[in-house]
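INFO batch 0412 | record 1 of 1 | parsing
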Amino acid sequence: MGGREQDFVRQAFESNYIAPLGPMVDAFEKEFAEYTGIPHCVALTSGTAATHLALRHLGIGPGDEVLASTLTFIGSVTPVTFEGARPVFIDCNESSWNMDPELLCEAIAAADRRGKMPKAVIPTDLYGQPCDVPRIRDICDRHGIPVICDSAEAMGARYRNKKSEVRSQVDGSRTLNPESWRHAGFDAWAAVYSFNGNKIMTTSGGGMLASHDKKLIDHARILSQQARNPAPWYEHTEIGFNYRMSNILAAIGRGQLEVLADRVRRRREIFEGYRQRLGNLPGISFMPEPAGCRGNRWLTVILIDPQEFGTDTHAVRTTLEANNVEARPLWKPMHLQPVFQGCVCWQRQEAVSARLFREGLCLPSGTAMTETDLDRVCEIIQRASRG
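INFO prediction complete | emitting tokens
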């Protein structure tokens, strides 16, 4: 917390809107749309709920396939199983650690040959770094496949859309179009965001579904409120869910949104602080940031080459833990999860995601970290390399 969250929560209490819905929810959706540039938004209980409603709107069901990033949090994928469909995983590339568009092309071509096209594609903006959603959208649009971008970790992140990068002037000159910088998820059919307690902005729990498709958001809004029809009594013609955000949580979200730019700035400073302290150590490398991408650096992620560094990721993590410093491995790829045993993963030789999981470590990245905190974490990592 750190903005005007308490002021907004007090206003919510004074208005006596404590239960789900209310003026804070309406205001949060409006301000969120203004911040991201995505015009239609519905505030929900989680990012997982947002993905679920998007899939339900598409009518996805048993026997259908959905292509998804393998290097992601499981909440990106479980909604596919909620509807009885089957996930097919796509490996990441080295340049961004996000879904590899070329592998996506191959997977869709193979599906076309089988006569069983995927019903949706769910790429993830990993650790707050936007995926190449314009390229993914181009690939999918040729086949009429909707793209649901999992931007749960990417609030405040931005990327350049090369198609709108240059704007011609009346005199024939060409200038950079400021609208070419777009918020993470902007070019997808639907974008999913999370405000879980560990995210760069939080409402303690919550999410948002955003889209340029008003019909999707209108339907999702109905589904999120138990699909109640407009009648004096409770009338239902389809099955819905209890997925609506509360007025109190939305009040917190409004305060968090006001300071989001500062949070992104500080997370990027923390990333640079780690790079300055650790970047020259043999065997240490950092998550890359492709040109035309400005991630929010939600987490600072490093790779440790045990041959060069002198010890492996597990040893570094346990050394940090012994000093009361929490660090975690990268997301374990979905195609390696026991619950998804037997699911297909499109990859080249050994999956890039498998190596990243083996060598990767997420370092403490909280906005409140001080330079002293950074010094301490980095000193422990340096000591670990010396045994």
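INFO post-check: The CA atoms of residues 25 and 313 lie 43 Å apart.
INFO record closed
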